[in-house]
């Protein structure tokens, strides 16, 4: 997880990807990554219902990371395609 690379977790629905992602986030915090440096966006949550396009998502991310020192950061977006 220390390399600047995109990692994709792909599998069928309802097999535990979200649980794995939450465990991964806990592991990152346990390894010393500030929880503030982990941005988790659950596009299935009504909290993100405003995000209809990549531009909406980009605006949200930029607002969330404004003013944060990002020496090591993680942007986690579970994407579900139906």
Fold and architecture overview:
The chain has 82 residues and is mainly α. It has one domain. Helices cover 32% and strands 7% of the residues. It is built from two helices and two strands. It has helices spanning 17-30, 54-65, and strands spanning 38-40, 74-76. A two-stranded parallel ribbon has the order 1-2. Strand 1, helix 2 and strand 2 form a beta-alpha-beta unit. The longest helix is centred in the N-terminal third of the chain and has 14 residues, at 17-30. The radius of gyration is 13 Å and the shape is globular. It starts with 16 loop residues before the first helix and ends in a 6-residue tail after the last strand. The relative contact order is 0.20. The model has no long low-confidence stretch (mean pLDDT 81).
